[in-house]
Amino acid sequence: MAMSLLFVVTVASVPVSSITTETPTTITVNTEKVLSVTNPTYASFNIDSSYNRGFFHINFSNPNLQAATASLHPSTLRFGGGGNDYLHYGPPGHECNNTNDWDDYGCLNATHWNNFYNMVTMGGAKMLFGVSFDMVTACNQMEQYKWDSSNFELMADYMIKSNQPIWGFELGNEVNNRQTKCNLSATQQADAFETFMTVLEKKYPDTSTRPLVIGPDTGYLNPKTWLPGVLKVVGPKLHAVTHHVYPGVDAKNFNQASVLDRVLDDISWYVPIIEQFAPQAQIWAGEDGPTGGGEDGTCGTHSACGTYATVMWYADDMALRAKHGFSQYQRQDLAGGRYGLLGMDHDNEALLIPDEPLRIQADFWVNFLWKRVMGNQVLNQTITSSFNGTMRAYTHCGLPSSPFPATTKSSKSNADSSVTAVIINLDTVAHTAAIDSATTSTQWTLTPATDAAGASALLNGKALPVQFADGKPINQVPVDGVVVKQGDVMAIPALSVTFVVAQGISHLPSECSVSV
């Protein structure tokens, strides 16, 4: 017999005592079965090697960068983006030189690579390495281009000799976006993948330790035809398939439901293609940011980069994709782009001083709280509302993936009988919410410290840390949760993201009691 939980969300302006006749928004959660499952590392992030993202100007031995990475454990750090297709690898004995031209090569030497690798692994993250497609040569040779594995093989030999395990590899970043300018085809990328996989079999003969292969990292230009062209050749050999999306969130549209729902168009064709050509593969959002152009300091007209305005999009995008079967979400970027989770001096994104502090952008806290509140078992729900999508909610169950879960007054960790939820209020007025059937609900709510154009967030009305400066990770949620007893209502402020643990729920699927 199907069971359901009823979340009653009544919309009104504060104070709560003035609420009398408003029609509630109801969220009915189906507890008969789990809809889908996310990876423990679901809320993850990328670093791009582009010059204009500052990769070659970042001191990766900086303890504050390592502390920030550790604060978001567990995670997968994807070393990938446009710059990775312009890399040459320069391990000892094969040194190379850097240039400052976007359409020319960058050199990944052993010192910089080792510092970067150590930052990632000491921060507890898995390394997903984006291998260069050698876009300079590809665009010179066009339809005659065949990917040459020799430079990658030098790097792989160095990794193996240095005892640097790699969790996974990708090959090429948004190669389809070059099909017009450089006359490249999906067949060329598929052939490159086949060559690449042969190299991996040779370099890593033990299948138990061989890195996984992810791809093909399509971008905006004709992905509906490009993706099947690659997957029909190599799809069965891929661990996961990825696609990149930048929906264009700015300071004027950041709280429009239609903007947040733009992802549904991509999901409508992307998921069926994977199910057809790579049914065993995980579905990934491999590179997602609020808007493109994060390297020039503007992020487009009416920029929302580095402000609170992207908080609601980020929480909603992760939740919406999880509901539609995505296993992994890679945010662009951890640091380097103007839309990153961390901020640094914007002089070519330099982080040169060994112990220079790092700003904590408001979006950082979405990732941080997701790992400490949200379970990885995704439940389905229906929402009945008269508010045109401005109140949005998503529900999960099970234990959160962080070793430091958000604590509640009644338990030191999320109970097996709990439902975890993220509730997003796009309105500029406050609402309230009540979770039926829960013995207690505990909430952590992000709101702007000043307004949506500001850089900082509050949590339950209290100030959050604004920088990493002492080299120490942030493990525990810095602010106590607000406890709401059965029959009471939760305050849902304007322009907010609320993470909730609702305890005492019965009749949940058996998977909900399984720890990740």
What keyword list fits this structure?
2 domains, 9-stranded antiparallel β-sheet, 8-stranded parallel beta barrel, globular, Immunoglobulin-like, alpha/beta, 10 helices, 516 residues, single chain, disordered N terminus, TIM Barrel
Description:
This protein has 2 domains: 4-32 and 387-513, Sandwich (Immunoglobulin-like); 43-360, TIM Barrel (Alpha-Beta Barrel). 52% of the residues are buried. Helix 5 links the parallel strand 9 (168-171) and strand 10 (212-218). Mean pLDDT is 88; it is low at 1-21 and 410-415. With 516 residues, the protein is of the alpha/beta class. The chain has helices at residues 63-71, 110-122, 135-141, 150-161, 186-203, 223-234, 257-260, 263-277, 311-323, 362-373, and strands at 4-11, 24-30, 36-37, 43-47, 75-79, 87-90, 106-109, 125-131, 168-171, 212-218, 240-245, 282-288, 328-331, 342-343, 358-360, 375-378, 380-384, 391-400, 419-425, 431-435, 440-448, 457-459, 462-463, 467-468, 482-485, 490-492, 496-503. Helix 6 (223-234) runs parallel beside helix 8.
Topology (elements, then pairings):
Layout: E1 4-11, E2 24-30, E3 36-37, E4 43-47, H1 63-71, E5 75-79, E6 87-90, E7 106-109, H2 110-122, E8 125-131, H3 135-141, H4 150-161, E9 168-171, H5 186-203, E10 212-218, H6 223-234, E11 240-245, H7 257-260, H8 263-277, E12 282-288, H9 311-323, E13 328-331, E14 342-343, E15 358-360, H10 362-373, E16 375-378, E17 380-384, E18 391-400, E19 419-425, E20 431-435, E21 440-448, E22 457-459, E23 462-463, E24 467-468, E25 482-485, E26 490-492, E27 496-503
